Hints:
Number of domains: 1
Low-confidence stretches: none
Oligomer: single chain
Radius of gyration: 18 Å
Shape: globular
CATH superfamily: Aminohydrolase, N-terminal nucleophile (Ntn) domain
Structural class: alpha+beta
CATH topology: Glutamine Phosphoribosylpyrophosphate, subunit 1, domain 1
Number of helices: 7
Mean pLDDT: 90
Distance between the termini: 51 Å
Strand content: 25-35%
CATH architecture: 4-Layer Sandwich
Largest sheet: 5 strands, antiparallel
Amino acid sequence: MARRYDSRTTTFSPEGRLYQVEYAxxxxxxxxxxxxxxxxxxxxxxxxxxxxxxxxEKTLAEKLHQIDSHVVAASAGIxxxxxxxxxxARAMALRYKHKYGQAIPVEVLxxxxxxxKQSYTQFGGLRPYGVxxxxxxxxxxxxxxxxxxDPSGNYAGWQATSIGANSQTAHSILKSDYTSNLSSxxxxxxxxxxxxxIMDVTxxxxxxxxxxxxxxxxxxxxxxxxSESEITELNEM
Length: 237
């Protein structure tokens, strides 16, 4: 049945499915995992770093993206698609700041990217973006926020979520272990626990994972990448 209705993005099957969008989701399900967790005083993003070849430069294939001083995103899926959308998000943030004189609200930015992704499921001659994002940010309206955006254009706010390979397993762990009053260290340990389960390893390092933490100091948001020594210490705790 799929082969009769999957040649065009805009063709619905009799069951009401858009197969090209589902294929995009399947591409994400085979990509490196990313985890987002909201804590009592900030946000944690963690991603799996897959080394496809030891000949590749380590600077390639970024999974964590700084969009603005108050917003960071983790991606899973096709890296080229992620770069295009991240650049669009950065441009949107700059235009908003230039026009209104303040940082863009996190949900406004997420909705803009989600609308752009949805438009690529609606017109012929285009294919859906094969990438999902976890957006983590803070603004004066809603405080700390965590959103997940999918190729269909859907987005939703989460306390904790995961995208990429074995996301169902990750969600099961998050459902059982997550609480709203998690400390920063507990959230980091939980993120590493999820990635260890997905990657089927006992320990992780900066070579295989990457973590970033968003915290609020006064009225300023800051983001900090977790160092190798901290990851080693978290592994031992």
